[in-house]
Amino acid sequence: MAHRFDAIIIGAGQAGPSLADRLTRAKMTVAVVERNLFGGTCVNTGCTPTKTMAASAYAAHLARRGREYGVVLDGPVKIDMARVKARADAVAANSRTGVEKWLRGMPGCTVMQGHARFESADTVRVGEGLLTAPRIFINVGGRAAVPDMPGIGEVDYLTNSTILGLDRVPEHLVVVGGSYIGLEFAQMHRRFGAEVTVVEKGPRLIAREDEGISEAIRAILVEEGVTVRTGAECIGFRRHPKGAAVFVDCTSGEPEVVASHVLLAVGRSPNTDDLGLARAGVATDPRGFIAVDEGLATSMPGIWALGDCNGRGAFTHTAYNDFEIVAANLLDGEERRVSDRIPAYALYIDPPLGRVGMTVAQARATGRPLLIGERPMTRVSRAIEKGETKGFMQVVVDAETHKILGAAILGTGGDEAIHGVLDMMNAGASYATLQHAVPIHPTVSELIPTMLGDMRPDASGS
Ligand SMILES: Cc1cc2nc3c(=O)[nH]c(=O)nc-3n(C[C@H](O)[C@H](O)[C@H](O)COP(=O)(O)OP(=O)(O)OC[C@H]3O[C@@H](n4cnc5c(N)ncnc54)[C@H](O)[C@@H]3O)c2cc1C
Predict the structure, then answer these.
(1) How many Å lie between the centroid of ligand 1 and the Cα of residue 215?
(2) pLDDT tens digits for 56-75?
(3) Which of 191, 192, 405, 443 has its CA 20 to 30 A from that of 426?
């Protein structure tokens, strides 16, 4: 006999627990099934530990620069990696415990630990038990992709999860993959004192961003001593007495890099291959992401997919927004759509990159007439005062509608300052609204209106 509920939620990541809260408040009985750690990727192996460790790396960086600020520390800066790790572990554990306690104390919520697998469109197996419900919400997230690269089976490699277990600074960390996750780990480990090489297949780092951003980020990393090997067409591995040799086969430089540790940061795969989706009649795309409509309903009525597993976002805030969309449509009679979401995210290197909307390249591809504004961080008082003047800010505006299409702030405080632009875009306001605002001095945000007042027609003249 299957245990009957009003709803089943598979996965206690960034959407599941909040959805359980809303559904149980609506007097539904809910089963939440989690196979591993409460809080999912963000809390345990993603945002929380990495940003906590990046804070340690920033402290080390500032300590090394102390003299510039008139702060004198005697002797070289030393890293106690075990304490760095313990700090990150403690912050993550606190958050994880909070999620678990919240769920276990939720009236009407049954928490089950185990791997959930569909038996049919309304029934899920967890170990020996069967659960059934007319509504099932999939929030299973993803994991580090491990492509079948030559020699990968011969070497020990780290992923975003296992690298968090290091309690000693690696001698030479080779990061395979020059995108968001890889670059965050690359910079922090460099700041901890490791030799770091980033190996990227493409011609430039974070290829999704505009070229200028990629170049500026490369320069920031290289200046700190990170070696960047782009255009590494045939990445491969072999065992080496020191750890692993990574074939780079770039157009220039050494063809092989010897690593004490290798981090694979080459993308994420959805956790959908072991869910029994075919039995439930839930369709996926060729990469395994669950196909969803605007309201995040799957191909099978009564089943929804939220968070990273639906391929419509890859962030904590997008997973949480998926919960908001589903809850609003189901419980509040709204008709919210995932495509109404304006893409926004940050890359947490130092200085961070805050991004919203289209890149300049994407805006140009639309064929509209554009206005483009730019300002280097060397012309931002707050950055000068902080001694952190690397990077620049950029905005792209539709020259006819005056709506902001996108912006990037690569610079100190960029992850926060970008929200001024994001809010304007969400409000559907013209750029003049932001240009005429009176921001606080001295902040990074105060130069956004100045930049908007100094825009030029796009010279590319699309
Ligand atoms: C290194 C790193 C850094 C990141 N930094 C940021 C950041 O700074 N900001 C940001 O916004 N995002 C960041 N992300 C992305 C963010 O972590 C994810 O987008 C977010 O966690 C997705 O949430 P989710 O709810 O979709 O899935 P998850 O958080 O992955 O949760 C899914 C849960 O489902 C469980 N599960 C899976 N299969 C089953 C099953 N069959 N049965 C039962 N349970 C199952 C898993 O154990 C997991 O707990 C980062 C990711 C990584 C890897």
Answers:
(1) 29
(2) 999 999 999 999 999 999 89
(3) 443
